[in-house]
Design a protein that fits this description.
Length: 489
């Protein structure tokens, strides 16, 4: 009988680890598989923990995260009651309220991960392996698709994009970026005692990952990937030579690929105007105080020239076409010059009506179509027919501000401050070559890039985005105590 119990315990522990390790793969198959994976993982976790789940003592970061989830439910409930009282019953508002309750599944997932780790059930090396392999396999599949026009299961390339298993969803480059640094650090950790193989295989891996993102046609993930690799070069002394060799090889490879393909060459040469001139420079310039900018006249003149170009382009531009999504005929923006800026202005406009509480979960898609209270003409010099509408504002922070108000964004900023303090306190220790340190450092860089404020993003309240952030955050939160304890020894 005792033997039987041990067998059951062993099999349930193994199953939990396999299900947890399946998360990176579930992202490839889509939201349905990700949600099923969450449900299976939570059910298995609750079954394994049983009454122990009630003994949980939340640390400060998890308490803040819990308050954030509560606030999302509260502000959505408030929005539902307000609309019910002033506008009458609306089925869309009821669906949003139900989704705000269902949103707690992500917090349940975080708590179960936390407790399973406390009772030494989770083995993160399985997740590390699947995350590392997934990014490399998608990259290789994209390279294969680029040369043959279809991937290994026969899915054809999209115009100007190679989307691998994602089909018509042009998100393959973003997926590779999500797990690329797990691939890099897994190899450097695995081969730490084999110097020649470490140099060779890490360089090859970085080139495969970079080429995969390049050939996917996703420009922002490529910029962020190069930025992340540069961060490793800047702060990780032990890997500096390997990263230098990898970056050199990567730029040579990029030069060869782009010069041999006119379509890619045109696609990426135009990205300077669309991304650097149209997006990055204006956003960064807002963060630079005028007193500092005045000390650098060349930079000041360049930023003023960029602003002038953007204003002229906006005045001369035609209205940007839209397509309809499957979600209640909500317009989806096809991006062009000034579209992101208009989305942000529209989001701020919808937020201005309820600054403290926000408008509730997934409210932007409805509120951005409501022109009756529009203040755009007063705040942005845009007329109502130039208002941009989409399912979300395409920036995590703007979306949180719009839908949860000042309180919600304040809770997020507290979490961000805790994250930054943790990195600075344990920066030296994070650069170790053991599996745990490599895993946490992979998570730190991945999360930093995922929540990097000056970029366009998906919606933070969608299945894949929320699940990914919870997964990566849990890896950092769970190992935080262990790393600090080892650091003090």
């Amino acid at each position: 009988m005792v033997l039987s119990k041990k067998k059951i315990s062993f099999s349930s522990t193994s199953l939990i680890n396999y299900v947890f390790a399946f998360f990176p793969i579930s992202f490839i198959f889509g939201n349905l598989f990700t949600n099923i994976n969450i449900i299976i993982f939570c059910v298995l976790g609750i079954f394994h923990l049983r009454s122990n789940i009630l003994k949980i003592k939340l640390n400060f970061p998890i308490k803040i995260i819990f308050f954030l989830f509560l606030w999302i439910f509260f502000t959505t409930s408030l929005s539902f009651v307000k609309s019910l009282y002033f506008e009458g019953y609306d089925n869309d508002n009821l669906i949003r309220l139900i989704k705000s309750i269902a949103f707690f599944r992500y917090f349940l997932m975080l708590i179960i991960i936390y407790l399973l780790n406390e009772y030494e059930v989770l083995n993160f090396k399985y997740f590390f392996v699947t995350a590392a392999c997934s990014a490399l396999l998608i990259s290789l599949d994209i390279i294969y698709q680029y040369f043959f026009g279809f991937n290994i299961i026969g899915l054809k390339s999209q115009p100007s994009h190679n989307s691998s298993f994602f089909g018509e969803e042009l998100i393959a480059g973003g997926f590779i970026l999500d797990f690329a640094f797990f691939s890099i650090f897994f190899l450097t950790c695995l081969l730490k005692n084999k110097n020649i193989y470490r140099y060779l295989l890490t360089t090859i891996a970085i080139c495969i990952l970079g080429a995969g993102i390049l050939l996917s046609g996703n420009k922002m993930p490529l910029i962020l990937f190069l930025f992340g690799v540069f961060l490793i070069f800047l702060f990780h002394n032990k890997l500096r030579k390997i990263i230098f060799l990898s970056l050199l090889s990567l730029f040579i490879l990029f030069k060869f690929i782009i010069s041999s393909n006119d379509e890619l060459k045109g696609n990426y040469s135009s990205s300077y105007d669309n991304i650097v001139v149209g997006e990055v420079v204006p956003r960064i310039s807002v963060l630079i105080p005028p007193s500092i900018l005045s000390k650098f006249p060349l930079l000041k003149n360049y930023i003023e020239d960029v602003k002038k170009v953007n204003e002229e382009a906006f005045l001369q531009s035609e209205p940007i076409e839209t397509t309809e999504t499957k979600d209640q005929n909500i317009p989806k923006v096809i991006y062009g010059k000034s579209a992101h800026k208009q989305l942000i202005f529209t989001a701020i406009d919808t937020w201005s009506g309820n600054k403290i509480f926000g408008n509730g979960l997934r409210s932007f898609r409805k509120d951005c179509r409501d022109d009756s209270n529009s203040k755009l003409s007063e705040t942005t010099n845009l007329s109502e027919n130039q208002r941009r509408c989409s399912t979300h504002p395409h920036n995590y922070y703007i979306e949180i501000l719009t839908e949860t108000g000042i309180v919600g964004i304040s809770l997020v900023l507290i979490i961000a401050i805790i994250f930054v303090i943790f990195i600075f306190k344990n920066f030296t220790f994070l650069k170790g070559d053991n599996l745990k340190n490599s895993l946490v450092l992979s998570g730190v860089i991945s999360l930093f890039i995922e929540v990097f404020p000056i970029q366009t993003t998906g919606s933070i309240f969608t299945t894949n985005d929320t699940t990914y952030i919870i997964l990566i955050s849990s890896i950092i939160l769970i190992n935080k105590k262990l790393i600090i304890k080892e650091n003090l020894q």
